[in-house]
Input
Amino acid sequence: MAEDASLTRRGFLALGAGLAVAAGCRGGGGGATAAAALPLQPGPMTLDLAGSEVATWGYGTVPGPEIRLRAGDVLRVRLDNGLPEGTTVHWHGLAPPNAMDGVPRVTQVPVEPGGTFLYEFRTPVAGSFMYHAHVGVQLDRGLYGPLVVEPRDEPLSYDREYVLMLDDWADGVEETGPHTDHGGVPAESAVDPGPATVSFGGRTYPLVLVNGHPPDDPPVLEGRPGDRLRLRVMNVAADTGFRFAVAGHPLTVTHTDGMPVEPVTVDVLRLGMGERYDVLVELGRRDGAWQIGVAPEGRRGWGRAVLRYTGSPASSAPPVTAWPAELDGRPAEHADLLAVEPLALPPGRPDRVFDLTLDGTEIGGQSYPDADPLTVAEGEWVRLVLRNTGAKWHPMHLHGHHFQVLTPSGRGPVKDTVAVPARGGVVTFDFLATNPGKWLFHCHNHHHMEDGMVRLVRYGSA
Ligand SMILES: [Cu+2]
Output
């Protein structure tokens, strides 16, 4: 069971500004003030998957230590590379100065084994973010963690908060295939989603982990009757989109990719890789333990956590594969979501439009690094139209910017990663070119990215 998976709201306030705390991760971990650099130490480690030890790479725990700041604070992290190869850290969803973006060979030279690098930049925008390694296949191991920037004045009221990182996992269990008994769901009871109508990838991932835990050893979220919980749900998987629902409890979406939206209540979230949703969950006047189901899109497998009302017996746990009916219920669609703080777009039309077809792992007919940069000018209003002609969904992520998804309301959600549906799906978004540099625009399917599904957005002196 997960130890100390939450902090109460009061706990946050007591910690004050500028503290990094380890919450929702495995095996504790220390805190450090932001004034001193927080050490982040990637290296080989073992991860206990429900009693089965596997070798992996991580930042000491999986997920790595939570980094928590307040808006306007300076993030100061010293990367001490304990890996046998070069590495970098990317601050997914933040818009740092280009040199701090952590993209190897684009914004920095990878930090060599034994080397050190200081990441240091101000974090003016609040939200739920992630950090992860951005070299080769490192992200596919345990090299990721949550990064939360709290607003100076929190407009939401809630009693407890939990971060839930959803991951597809193969490290140390690959060779056993999907019928593993490594803390996963036994083959005979494996959850089969049926035909693959939605698919974000095609590799084999025997396990789905929630905060580093397989379904046989789920993290437990505690709450008292009447409590309001805030969940920050993050998909850090390499190759898997997920549906996420809590049995018996609707989800009120308050943020997409960290940016506020008008609250809307749904049954289920659908998260492509790199996407995050903040939701509020109202605990009723009841008790018991309720399944939090994490269903991979279009493939076998299953992840879960458990919501337990305080005082309910520890033995009250839902069966491992209990399927919340809400997983088949009403999802949050882009058209449902209204930005609270839309981009400050000028009147008129975009200064520049890129109309890009996603075909296989090409963007606009090109494959990185043999690809032209998308060159814009500083200050421009830029529009990207993405047309997916392939059979896989692609969660497209833009570094260094927040963009606004075009919806009929004219107030679509502000995001940094957006899933473009397969077989003719079209997504259009706008951003303001106010952060000069060389910025990656890529599919957050790790394998697609490695296969060249990347373009650069370039402006300024970069
Ligand atoms: Cu993709």
Q: What stands out?
A: The pocket of copper (II) ion is lined by residues 392, 394, 443, 445, 448, 453 (CB under 6 Å).
